[in-house]
Amino acid sequence: MEQFNLLLIWSLFLFAYILGSIPWGLVLTRFFTTEDIRKHGSGNIGATNVRRIAGSTLGAMTLIGDMAKGAFPVYLAIVLTGDHDIRGELYVSLVALSAFMGHLYPCFLRFKGGKGVATAAGCFLVISPVGCLIAFLLFSTVLGLSNRASAGSLSAAAGLPMAVWWTGHSLLITGCAIVMAIFIFFRHHDNIRRLISGTEPVFREKKDGGAHRA
């Protein structure tokens, strides 16, 4: 039985990566439309581009799917460890990073994936619900002020490690949040350039056809 439990514990890393590799944005747009989301808009497989190209419903479904593939393996990791000592925190952090890296570098798409915001949110919704809520409030505030989803995402990523530390004071869990934030910033390098130049697409167009400008 102990050997079985060890096998289950180690296999969760692979399971998390494979689950994280499922490109829900591409799957849903292929199933419900005739579009390849990678050939439209920003080319990203995440919820923002799906919403922009295929509508709010598929965008919301993509968001839920990308969050779930982070939340589910992390929940299993917490159940398997059953405690909150340093080994448990390390294990949960590594499982979370496995799912996160699966989204960024999916084996099903030749390792060309998304930007990781929703999957990171799913992971920390389970690991640190209050920290995740603080990051979400940052995202919502900056999105509302700038009308750019990328600006909101970058703000949430920057704030997540501080929120996680403030609510839990765990070096390992905070380190996990820092690693995810670094990768999120790296995957948003094109968005950052467009934000600086003022050419980043808005999240929501005004009803009169104009765009809210930050």
The main β sheet shows up as: none
Count of individual helical segments:
10
How much strand content do the residues show?
under 5%
**Unreliable stretches:** 209-214
H/E element order: HHHHHHHHHH
Number of strands: 0
Rg computed from alpha carbons, rounded to a whole number of angstroms: 18 Å
Q: Please identify the structural class as seen in this structure.
A: mainly alpha
Q: What level of helicity do the residues show?
A: over 70%
Terminal Cα separation, in Å?
59 Å
Query: What is the averaged pLDDT score?
Result: 91
What is the number of domains?
1
Q: What spatial form do the alpha-carbon principal axes imply?
A: globular
Write a structural description.
By secondary structure, the protein is mainly α. The chain has one domain. The chain is built from ten helices and no strands. The protein has helices at residues 2-20, 24-32, 47-54, 56-81, 86-104, 117-127, 129-146, 149-168, 171-187, 189-197. The radius of gyration is 18 Å and the shape is globular.
Short description:
With 214 residues, this protein is mostly helical. It has one domain (2-197). It has helices at 2-20, 24-32, 47-54, 56-81, 86-104, 117-127, 129-146, 149-168, 171-187, 189-197.
